[in-house]
Amino acid sequence: MTGINIRHSKGFTLIELLIVLALFVFIIDATVSIFVSIVHHQKRVLADQELLDQANYVLESISNSLKMAQEDKAGICLYRDAIRYPGYFYILTHRDGDSGFYQGIKFLNANGICEEFFLDNDGQFKKSDNVNLPQNIISSKFNIVYARFLINGDKTVTGSSKNALAVPRVTMVLNIQHQTEGSLQGKVIQTTISQRNY
Q1: What is the 3-state secondary structure (H, E, C) of 73-85?
Q2: How far is the first Cα of the chain from the last one, in angstroms, to the nearest whole number?
Q3: Nearest C-alpha neighbor of 115 from the set 128, 96, 104
Q4: Residue-wise over 56-67: b if at least 16 C-beta within 10 A, else e?
Q5: Span 74-99, mean pLDDT?
Q6: What CA–CA distance (Å, rounded) separates 78 from 105?
Q7: Which of 40-49, 77-86, 118-127, 174-183 has the weakest average pLDDT?
Q8: How far is CA 131 from CA 41, 64, 112, 128, 185, in A?
Q9: Residue ranges per structural domain of the chain
Q10: Is residue 127 within 8 Å of 198, Cβ to Cβ?
Q11: For the residues of the chain, what is the DSSP string, one character each?
């Protein structure tokens, strides 16, 4: 009977197997880390896109209505603190005492319905009219830090009428925040609209 010569057998040593196993674990760990990082980045991008979509919806809704706002000849819609504003296209509402900016705008829309867009005390941006109760126009997943409305770039101007020297321009600024994976992300979005029915 012949004995088996261990020196000449073909195989791997324990050290060689451990080195290969360590390299395999390192490659798998790096691959999983890259994949997890990509998934987290994708979630942030999707959350940012949703925020921009919501903000775009709000700004477009307001813009489309403001462009076609009618003159309130009798002052039936446009009043504040028992003061009526006949001949105005829109007035600013919901003044923030801390910043001095107005957080809402009220106007008579193209269909003759009195509309108001405003930041409510609960932090939600809402739309109200003389037909329906105020309704949120942005998802409650988002927090509106502030909304600002300016007429012709001046925060002291509270309304606009045909008697104004220039075509009225309304600037809207929204600071919107949302929670993404433990961190608070935000965007400040601004647009300016001019009156078409001037």
Answers
A1: CCCCCCEECCEEC
A2: 112
A3: 128
A4: eebbeebeebbe
A5: 89
A6: 10
A7: 174-183
A8: 43, 19, 11, 8, 36
A9: 41-194
A10: no
A11: -PPP-GGG-----HHHHHHHHHHHHHHHHHHHHHHHHHHHHHHHHHHHHHHHHHHHHHHHHHHHHHHTPBPBSS-SS-EETTEE-TTEEEEEEEE-TTT--EEEEEEE-TTS-EEEEEE-TTS-EEEEESSS--EE-S-TTSEEEEEEEEETTBTT--EEETTSSS--EEEEEEEEEEEETTEEEEEEEEEEEE-S--
- Single-letter amino acid, residue 67: K
Token pair, residue 158, equals: 């509270």
Question: Would you put residue 87 in left (φ > 0), alpha (ψ -120 to 50) or beta?
Answer: left
On whether the pTM is more than 0.85, the answer is no
Per the structure block, which two tokens stand in for 19? 């080195």
| 179, two tokens | 């929670």
